[in-house]
Structures are given as structure tokens and as C-alpha cells.
Design brief:
Chain A: Keywords: Repeat, WD repeat. The complex is a heterodimer of chains A (449) and B (202). Chain A has 449 residues and is mainly beta. Helix content of chain A is 2%, strand content 40%. The longest helix of chain A has 6 residues. Chain A is globular, with a radius of gyration of 24 Å. The chains are: A mainly beta (449), B mainly alpha (202). Chains A and B meet through β7, α1 and α2 of A and α1, α2 and α5 of B.
Chain lengths: 449, 202
Amino acid sequence: MMFEANTGGGSNDVQWCFSQVKGAIDDDVAEADIISTVEFNHSGELLATGDKGGRVVIFQQEIENKPQCRSEYNVYSTFQSHEPEFDYLKSLEIEEKINKIRWLPQKNAAQFLLSTNDKTIKLWKISERDKRPEGYNLKEEDGRYIDPNTVTALRVPVFRPMDLMVEASPRRVFANAHTYHINSISINSDHETYLSADDLRINLWHQEITDRSFNIVDIKPANMEELTEVITAAEFHPHQCNTFVYSSSKGTIRLCDMRASALCDTHSKLFEEPEDPSNRSFFSEIISSISDVKFSHNGRYMMTRDYLSVKIWDLNMESRPVETYQVHEYLRNKLCSLYENDCIFDKFECCWNGNDSVVMTGSYNNFFRMFDRGQRRDVTLEASREGSKPQQVLKPRKVCADGKRKKDEISVDSLDFNKKILHTAWHPQDNVIAVATTNNLYIFQDKVN
Amino acid sequence: MDVSAEAKRIMAVSISKLYASRAQRGGMRLHRSLLLSVVMRSARDLYHSACLAKEREELGTAHLVPVTPEEDAMDTTASGEQVEVEVSQVEPEPESPLTPTIQEPMSFDSEATQGACKTRTFIAKETVEDKENRSPVSPDRHSRKRRGKASVAPDFLPSKRARLSLELGEERVLRTGGRTCCRAGDVFTTLSLNSNRAIAAF
């Protein structure tokens, strides 16, 4: 496959610059403001974030005429997607936190997205209103009714321009289909169906039908005491509408073909890398659990993220990944502490750039990592307010694993494990990335000369 | 006894995390509970093994039936449901004593056999009963009733154990005395049973 040089190019060609930061400045983070998902739409013009408080904020890229600077993202719409609910049968609260947002491909002037919390998926329509009808015969502009007896002449109401109003309205609510907590949603390339996955089951929905879904994967054992693994992520293939993958807590990925049978409990392919026995520890199982799986845009590869690494798999080879990138190998000796402070359970996501040449994922201390597949180079960058002057080029960071810390390096013990970057997104075409720290969203762009 | 102290600590941390997750908003997370119970089980297995090894050192090797690799194959077929054998594993380094066992019940590399160039697998059938991995249709299942409170709770366990254990309906293992090491270990067997029940409750 030929890589095009300048389209979403490699990380060594790109100098990443700070562009914008969204969110509160103060250090005291309100729990509701914690960002839980970030997603560009298919054109990259819109950027959606979801938070723990159940809100969705959509940013829109303004089309700038000046060639010197890139366009900025400004708030386009904000709405409350999910509210806290209560399951009376189990006496459990259902969190309003938005686990995932996925944009539907655009079919008309309106935009549609799916947002989900632990139990319910909602289809939202985001539409613009920039004109309103004026000149009614029986109604004043403020809405008061006019006495018909006073009307002497008739006129035809016309549309007049108004200030742009963006409305978000829930068009469908897909509820009551998941016993366990939903971790993924993925829209099919057929533009009609989508899947939702929880810990033990995957359901197939039609976008228009809310009162039923098909269960296509069920790994719940007859006796729950025999449970050994759960589903951690699932995604449809970008082009083949019959194919999807799901990852497990044991580090395996199963590719399923919906043409083979209605219930895809039997996989078509099983991707699993044999464990390195020299790395065994109490925590081997936890760190092998896959937290995210993403197909490449071209559909030939998929990427998985486990606690310490990112792996690229060729769909034609099940025995082992074709590439493995260590995100923060220096943490391998700290697994016990990371277990105690719960960090070992953090679920990092990963993403591809537009032409699948670079992959990105987050780490601790507000660091994030990019791996250039072609150039075999990687870089560590930081999302912080210190580096946040407009167009300021980000300086590569380095973590020192042993005691011999060089200048500008950071030692492992100085890392702030409360500052974690779990969610990142890459613009589908351009070198624009969105990186979410705990409660801030950073937007970085490549340097425009 | 670094191995057992570390294993005990990890067990205690795991149990307190499991308990804490019950109070979590949104309910217990199945994935997290599963991972916690896996870690706890590994730690428990290692802790038991270390206790057993210590016990045997104290008592001599009267109960011990070390098995050479040639016999392992026969033993696997004979008591396959109880013991799985790792024959080819190299001895672990002394610096990384936390070699967990993922196969259940235990096969382990005891510190007592360090220096040997081959792994020795001890048939654990007679000495340790792995309650949680019994078939669910086990005949004495009906007799798992609450027999009474344990006399003294180990100090490294969270203080809310009593209240939560009532919710789970755990059985209490009544100990009449004996070695502190193994009594604590048995309590952990019981508590790890509950972790499975915690998952089973989903």
C-alpha cells in the first residue's frame, strides 16, 4: 500500500501545535464535567464530546478564509443526552455518563448521532434553524392571537432570516435491551443497522426500530460462576456490512460473519497472541484485557489497546499482531501500585489517522503517544496549559525509566497518575487531533507554514 | 515469607476493592469484578501454596508425594479433573517470586524446590480442597449453611466484612485453632467463594 506523503502525513513530518483548549481552567474538577468520549463526524467539521454528567457538547469547525491559521472549533450545540435513572428491580442507579458517541453518515441537512450510557442508546437529530416564518394573518409576532374581525387584508407569510439556532432532539430511544453495562456502539456500513455491546452480549438494531433488537453474540455461561471473560469492545467492519469484531478481557479478538449464522457465538477468526511467559505476574490477565478495538479506515487492519501496548493486526493473520507498540513499558514494574490505586483498570482508547499511517493513544501525566507505522518512529506529547499559547509547537516529552534522568526528562515516580488521557480522536482527513484530559478538551493541529 | 506476605496483601486489597465496588454508583461492574476475582484467586492460590510449603517444612515430608515428570502424564490422566500439570516450565527467578498459577487447582513452583532444574508438581488432592471449583451440583452443596462467626477476624481484612458477608450468605469456616497461617488462608478460601457469588449474583 502506498502512503501519500502529505495527506494526514506521518508524525515526523508534522509539527504539532496547540490550537485550542475547551473546558474549565480551575483544578477542582466537577465530576459531571469529566469527559468520557470524543468523536469527530465523518467530514471532521463537527466534534462531539460526552461527559459524566450525561451532556453532549458539539463543536463546529468554522471555515476560515485566512490561509495563515487553521479553522477553530467553537461550540455548536449542547444538550442533556441522558439523565440518571433508577432500576427499581435491582435497586441500582443507572449512571448518566455517556460511554460512547457515534455519528451517522450525513444524509440530509441535519446531523444524527447515537449516544449511549450504560443501558440506553439514543438517536439525536441536530438541525439548524436560520429562518422563521413571519407575517401570519391571525397571529402577532409575539404569538398573541389577532381578532379575525379586525383583519382587513390578507398576506402570505414568508420566511425571514433569523439568528442561527441549533436544535437537538431525541428521535429514537433504544432501551431495555441490555442486562449488563453497554461498552460499545458501532454503526454498520449498510447505513441501516448498528450494534451495541455489553459485557456479555451484542445486539443488532435497526436505526428506525426501537422496540426490538437481535442478539448476535451471547457469551454468558449457564453458570455464572464459570465466567472467565467478558466483551470489552465491538466494532463493525468499515466496508463489509456482514463483518464485526469484538475484543475480550482475556486479550483475544473474535471476528464474526453474520452471514454464517444468526447467532455469532462461533467466531470466523480468533486473533490471539501467545503470552510471553517471562512477563507473567499476578496482573498479567488484567493488563492483557483489551480496552479498545478499531478498524483501520481501509478495512485491512485493526488496532487493539491493552494496558501497556497498542497492537496492529492484519485481518488475514490470526496468530499474532503485525506491529506492537509499547505505550508506557516503564509501568510494567509498577503494576502492583497501579493495582492498588486502581489505575490498572483504566480503559485507554486508540485511534487511526486519516490514511492509517499513524496511530495515537493516551497515557498518564497528560501524555499522549503517536506511532508512525511507516517511519517506525514514535513521539510523546503533553496536553497542558503550559504549552497552550496559540500555534505553540509541542515539545516532545520523554520519560526516564531508570534513575539516570537527563535534562527535560521526567522520572516515572514524578508522573501524575490522576492526569490520564483516555480519549483521543483524529480528524478523518486533516492533521487535527482532539485530546481529552480529565475535564478539558485540547485541539492540536499541524503547523501551517 | 515474602511471597505469602505479598500474596496476602494483594488478596486483602482485592477483597476490599470487591466490597467497595458494591457501593459504586451504577452497580457492580462485571468486568472489574471478574478481574479482581482473578487476581484474588491467583494470590490466594499462591498464598495457600506458600502456607502448605511452610507447613510441610515444619511437619517434614510425611504427607508429601513429589511427582517426577515421567509420572506426571499418568497422573494427569488419572486425576485430570483435579490437577493440571506444568512440566516444561523453567524455575522462576528468586526476584520474581510471584509466579501465579492460572490453571486450577494449583500447580506451583515452591521455593523449597528452587535450584532443581525441573518443576515438581504436588498432587494437591488430598490436602487442599478447592471449594469454589467444585461442580455446582456437588452433593454437599445443600449443607453450606452459615455455621457461626469466625472467632477472630484477621486484622488485614476490612472491618465491614461482617455486614457484607451476611448479604452474600457466606459460610463461616469454624476453626478450632491451629496454625494462624492456614486459618487465615481458609478464611480467604471462603471469601473468594463469595467473589464468585458476587459475579453469580449478576
